[in-house]
Design a protein that fits this description.
It is built from 9 helices and 6 strands; from the N terminus they run H-H-H-E-H-H-E-H-H-E-H-E-E-H-E. The protein is α/β, with parallel strands linked by helices.
Length: 230
């Protein structure tokens, strides 16, 4: 197996998504140096943190957190770009496992029944071949054994990318973006964890909450890999 890996790495060298250096056999996706340099928010399971406060008055979420700070052109930006546009499916899962490991001993996952990744529209899923948020959720599930649910929430239209939109445009772009499916009533009385790759204004997550909040007794928490703190 090591010989096969050496042959693979010779013809298809594995490079760090952040710095472009060759990865060692023990490294996956990004090198140890870049991984250690990713800017942690330090929020973890801090009650009433700034991310939680973003949703006050919208829905009484249970908990909210993000692992890393996002800055355009920074290391986390390179990670997200690799996850979304360069086919780095294993990197998505790896970052989910890192999230799960970081939060596992803080009590953040206590009482959570299932993980719901923010869905992609079927056309974008077909073009990309995967949903990075779903793979993040899989990585978290690998660490926590909390099941991933992908059949209760759907994206109703293929909206334009949020990347270069203003705060108001993001909210406008996300309005009515998701809907609950016929399976959503199965979430009655359940505590779900919404997962996405990056939190900016909170418009996308809020649109997910709007689609699910009518489910009787539902509890909602939120976690993203990165947070674009304004």
């Amino acid at each position: 197996m090591n010989l096969l890996n050496d042959i693979r790495d010779f013809f298809f060298p594995r490079i760090c998504v952040c710095c472009g250096k060759l990865l060692s056999a023990q490294e996956e996706g990004l090198c140890i140096s870049c991984l250690a340099s990713l800017p942690l928010t330090g929020i973890l399971n801090t009650p009433e943190n700034e991310i939680e406060r973003r949703f006050w008055g919208i829905f009484p979420i249970e908990r909210a957190t993000s692992l890393y700070y996002y800055a355009r052109g920074g290391l986390v930006s390179s990670v997200l770009h690799g996850m979304k546009y360069h086919g780095r499916k294993h990197l998505c899962i790896q970052m989910g496992r890192i999230m799960g490991t970081a939060l596992r001993n803080t009590g953040f996952f206590d009482g959570i029944d299932c993980i719901i990744p923010v869905p992609l529209h079927k056309d974008r899923f077909r073009d990309r071949g995967y949903n990075q948020s779903e793979l993040l959720a899989k990585g978290i599930s690998d660490v926590t054994s909390i099941p991933v649910c992908t059949n209760c929430l759907t994206r109703t239209h293929n909206n334009a990318t949020q990347t270069h939109k203003s705060g108001f445009e993001r909210w406008e772009n996300a309005e009515g973006l998701f809907s609950a499916t016929s399976e959503a009533p199965l979430l009655k009385g359940r505590h779900i964890l919404l997962i996405d790759d990056v939190l900016t204004t909170g418009a996308t997550i809020t649109a997910c909450i709007d689609a699910l909040k009518s489910v009787t007794g539902i509890k909602i928490s939120v976690a993203t890999l990165a947070w674009a703190k304004s």
